[in-house]
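Sample 3 of the quickstart, ligand 2'-O-acetyl adenosine-5-diphosphoribose:
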Amino acid sequence: MTSLQRIVILTGAGVSAESGLRTFRAEDGLWEGHPVEEVATPEGFARDPDLVQRFYDERRAQVIAAQPNAAHIALGRLSGEFAGELLLVTQNIDDLHERGGARDVLHMHGQALRVWCQSCDARHDWRGTLRDGPQCPSCGAVAMRPDIVWFGEMPYQMERIFDALARADLFVSIGTSGAVYPAAGFVAQASQAGARTLELNLEPSQGSRFFDETQLGPASELVPAWVEEVLGG
Ligand code: OAD
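Result:
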């Protein structure tokens, strides 16, 4: 591990599960009781904006109430102490990596605590609700939506991610089912570019066969042990 220069980490809902935030692909196929197309597509938002605003108002409140767990804190430590280049990409919309101490987290699917004005294109930090139709602080329009990447929309900063994957020595995937592209394709990109690939997940995922190594267990145990190995090694 001593020769590691560049690491790319991808996290998913599993890293926040032990902080009490539900993962997406539970047995019933619903996200907090809703079919995904109802609350996570532009079409669902156009059909019933009030339902979607209420849904993300609840997610925002849950994120604010949640606390980072040992996995977030270990990754925060890695972000501060790793001497090489580290890119931490998350599919999660919570801010638990930041509160666990990580710097420069790339939220490829957007953030629960950000809103996006459809009138003037401004984005704002937001901790309140949207269901009551607040005005955009920049332009005054009542046209703000959650700054979340829904199905059918382009994830953020893909160029920066692909660039880092092309140069990585190690790609680590933590707590993600490997079911949603383009994130599910990162392991193949990294491996083709010559990186070693490691998966840390509670159970075998759809992408497990693409990794050089898979370790199974809860993120709160596997991640601190792996970080210790990287920093101590
Ligand atoms: P999923 O719900 O699909 O997968 C979560 C993964 O975490 C599963 O493989 C679980 O086995 C694993 N897991 C659960 N608890 C864990 C724990 N304590 N420790 C380690 N692993 C654990 O969530 P994602 O892969 O993040 O997209 O889903 C990807 C995207 O699909 C999300 O970002 C979201 C969703 O639709 C958008 O909203 C655009």
